[in-house]
Amino acid sequence: MAEQFAPRLALIAVMTVLGRGMLGGSDFAGTVKTAAVAAVVFFVLGLLVGEIARRLIEEHVRGDAAGDGKGSGAPGSGSPA
Question: What is the pTM of this model?
Answer without folding.
Answer: 0.72
